[in-house]
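Ticket #4471: structure output looks truncated?

Reporter: J.K.
Steps to reproduce: submitted the chain below (243 residues) through the standard prediction queue, then opened the result file.
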Amino acid sequence: MGSPHTIKMTKEILNSYSQAALDNADELLVEASLLLDHDHMARAYFLAVACIEEAGKALLCFDAQKRNHSNPAARKRIKVLTENHRENHRENHREKVNYAMLLLAFGDPDPSEALKVVPDLMYALNQGRELSMYSDLSPNPDRVQIPKEVVRPKAARDCVRLAESCLAKAHRHVIERVPFNFTSAQDRLFTMKSTKSQEIMTSADFWWYYTSRMEVGQQDFAEMFLDYERDHIKTGTLFHFVK
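Returned output as attached by the reporter:
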């Protein structure tokens, strides 16, 4: 057997993929709302997270149109994040949800305040996605748990509303913006190993650092991210205790 065909992620393919993901996200939001109306809270939650994920995929594809496609690491990263690889499925889900959530936060009238709650929301969504779909074993005490026992009605309603906000923001982004040229710092962040970027992204100390940089006028998220990695992750010092 020959090797499987590798799809070339051209600007045209990425643009079409972005629109297809938005269309699918629209349908997922409708279906999540229907389930919510009929008290199927766990599945409503799951489809709402899937909607956020598809919105994130649409944004990733849209923004990737002007990535450095001559860079093998960038090409590989685009494919890993936008295709549904089984071996990378958890990473894919998480990264797309996070992308949509960060865009929503950056578009808030007060992004520094929004970013104080976004890391916790990203963590909850990525954890809740599995819990809202599959039965599982839970300790303390040892027991079997099922999704409808885990997902509270309020959490499902909040998640559907959040999906609606993320999707509306994604639609505005692809209509009102044009894909922009990325800086070297932004490309370095994009191709960073997901385990490393996730470690920083879920650190409350990083968001303290980010907020302080915003307050003094620094705007480039990638530069702040890489500066934090250099000055705090690599040196083992916490910003919150040294600022």
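Triage note (M.O.): checked the attachment and the full token line is present. The chain has a mean pLDDT of 87.
Status: closed, working as intended.
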